[in-house]
Amino acid sequence: MKTFDDVMLLVYQERDDSKLWFPEWRVSSSILFDFVSDFAMSVFGYDNDSATFSLDLGFWTFQKWFMQTFSSAAISQKLPWCTITPKYKKMYYDIQEKFHSHRDDGSHKVVAVIGAGVAGLAASVKMAKNATFPLLVQLIEANDCIGGRVRTVLTKDKSGQYVNEKLAQRYEAFSPWAVPLGAEFVHGVGSPVNQLIEGHGWQAKETFDFSSDDPDCVQVFLNGKCYSFCSGLSQDKLTSLINEAKQIWANIFDIGGDVIENEHLHIPDDMCLSQFVELQMKGRSHEDKATVTSLIDAIFAKTAGTSTTCFGMNEGSREELNWDYEDCNFRTNSCFAELIEYFRGEIDRINKSYEAGVCEVMIQVIMKSPIVRVDSELDSTTGGRNIILSGRDGNNYSAHKAIVAVPLAVLKSGIIEFSGIYSLPDDKIRAIEKINMFSGMKAHVLLRKGVDINDSLLLDRTDLFFCPGEIFSQVWLQRNDATCFVTGFVVAEDRERLLSLIHEGGKDARYFFMSQLHRMFRDKEGNILFRETEPTCAAFDLYDWSDDIFVGGIYSSPSLGAGWRQLNSKETCRHDLKAPLHSTIYFAGEHTNTKVCATVQSALDSGVIAAKDVLQSFSKDSNLMTR
């Protein structure tokens, strides 16, 4: 067997052929899995489900055997059976060259990734897929599950469940809904997350479309009444103030637009969002200013995870100017559980390839090992210095390079001590202090139609309530034929306010959330939709992100003093957070994204960027050694 044509003949062998290397099943693989998949579909039909003939089975073993036995085999230029595209030929050549070039050179590198959230997962997979040298990625997670702040409990189809059993049992009563304790929405289109959704066929549904013609899609609950957020008509004073609040928010583009374009423009003085509103409404009544400030706080500041007094306008303007994804929002069927399952699958495939000897790259996932110290030690073999990571569990890890992908709140808490040559520089310390990451809570309620609540157009058509002045500043709705799944969002000072009310009044969070819903949920005639005077529900739970010391909050937010003015240049505190230490330790996470923070795509992008930087640094190190 000397050509790739001969390899493909194996596809046609019958199951009972005793000469097969896999007598238990027909050979269903070749050097490149995608190649064989495409080949099989072209022969047996793209609509024939059985044509896959268990393509996974035996793939890695067969690939290893062929590489070792027929290292000089070539692809024939004239394949007789199907249209094999140049793309797949090139992919085969590339993997064969990579395999034989690096298999025995002994230059095994180790990269430690601290934190298995989206940034850490993306960095690990990106490095493993793109490394051109033997590489071990040690993905070290403090908790007992991966995903970080993407933490969704599946209550129906649990095949992709990745949270611990205790958490899964806690939310069983919310079946059939996926319960997102952390990140929930895909913001905009065209991001890497959108590309994964489309590429893998994950189901996603658009929600609270701010440009919708439906006046009920997004509501503002203010002074005991609901107003349409999307209506462009000023039907009364409050609707007019809602429109004014949206216009004031749009004006933040004027702050930094010229900064992005002009190298020599003076950087504007920073101010908080409430000061900006005050300037925009100069000469207006105190009552109007207070109402608009309250609206902007609930609609924009709380969405950003902060308050109008802590929201920094320079950073906020930069974020808005860098937003390239349009103003729309989606929710996947499993609220990002698909994304975590995707990374789990990628890690599994990479490690299977390593175990089969096809490549020299693997990802070792280490759970429940919080890193508490980052230091270095001399490598007696090379004369260089290795990174030493000390775990709270007593385990130590040695690596050539590292990516710190923990949440900003963990860096703020000082849980991880950076020592010796890896002591944090003043600029990075200042950035950690300046950029805010407040804590937050999500309250979940399951309401039964006809039991807890009456059905109505409001509950059937409204996806989102903004609630200025309320503890739960935003309320999100999903529904099916039988139930309405309601989520309340509490962040920043509202969380402290809720805890204070619970402590002082003897009432629990369920009481306060249900009381707010009782005031909100009314039909067009003003009739209360709850069927009982004391509102009931099928299930309730409150999740507080401060309870997890290895997360510590929700996400970073545009912060006062962290923008352009702080460094008197177009670089910001985000650049200081992202900056590596000695081209050895790199940083990732949504808080390090120098364009846009606080989204899943921000975290994913940061991980990919850190991975590229690490691989490039290895290449630079190699070039220096060669010289």
Kindly describe this structure.
With 627 residues, this protein is α/β, with parallel strands linked by helices. Helices cover 37% and strands 17% of the residues. The protein has 21 helices and 23 strands. The strands form six sheets. The protein has a seven-stranded mixed sheet with strand order 8-7-18-19-20-17-21, sandwiched between helices. Strands 10-2-1-14-23 form a five-stranded parallel sheet. The protein has a four-stranded mixed sheet with strand order 13-12-11-15, with no helix packed on it. Helix 5 (118-130) links the parallel strand 1 (109-114) and strand 2.
Question: Main traits of this protein?
Answer:
21 helices; seven-stranded mixed beta sheet; alpha/beta; globular; about 625 residues; five-stranded parallel beta sheet; disordered N terminus
Radius of gyration, in angstroms, nearest whole number: 28 Å
From the spread of the alpha carbons, the general shape counts as: globular
Total of helices: 21
Helix content: 25-40%
DSSP strand (E) fraction?
A: 15-25%
Rounded average pLDDT: 82
Number of strands: 23
Largest beta-sheet details: 7 strands, mixed
Structure class: alpha/beta
Q: State the distance separating the first and last CA atoms.
A: 43 Å
Residue windows where pLDDT falls under 50 for at least 5 positions: 1-33, 47-65, 67-85, 98-106
Spatial strand sequence of the major β-sheet: 8-7-18-19-20-17-21
Oligomer: single chain
